[in-house]
Amino acid sequence: MLRSNNPDISVADPRDEEGTSLHFGGFLGDRLVVSASFYSSTPPVHAELRTYQLRYMATDFDVQGSGYGALLLEFAEAQLRALGAQLVWANGRDSALGFYKATGWQTVEGSEYVSPETQLPHTAIFKIL
Predict the structure, then answer these.
(1) What angle do CA 43, 20, 128 make, to 5 degrees?
(2) What residues does 106 pair with on adjacent strands?
(3) With contact defined as beta carbons under 8 Å apart, do 129 and 85 qualify?
(4) Residue 81 sits in a domain of what CATH number?
(5) Do 77 and 54 form a contact (C-beta atoms < 8 A)?
């Protein structure tokens, strides 16, 4: 789902193996249909709070809009809260902002940009846990 489903483009992050990094996935049977990674990070707002950055969230095309992404976020946010996280943030693809807003995330005013990795418009978003 990420990077236009091009297997030649890596979505690996140098923080993947850090002990504080968390990776979540949702399955239908044995098929992974939604995933997201969270990394301990300094946010663009409320830097005083213990924060994780969401990256690489993806939902399989044929189940988008079925609620799996919202369920994954709800579960991940509860796990992060239990670990003491107070805020989550991301650089959200503008085409997905409606989804994030519907799940309680807010945009960071004036943070709009075009990602050099994807050439797609993004906006910084966050959610107080």
Answers:
(1) 35
(2) 126
(3) yes
(4) 3.40.630.30
(5) no
Residue 8 within a domain:
no
Q: Are 77 and 127 in contact (CB under 8 A)?
A: yes
**pLDDT at residue 3, rounded to an integer:** 43
Mean pLDDT of the chain: 91
**Residue from 128, 86, 121, 85 nearest 106 by CA:** 128
Looking at residue 8, its pLDDT comes to 60
- Specify the pLDDT at position 29: 95
Cα Rg of the chain (Å, integer):
14
The H or E element that residue 57 is part of is strand 51-59
Secondary structure of 65-99 in the HEC alphabet? CCCHHHHHHHHHHHHHHHCCCCEEEEEEEHHHHHH
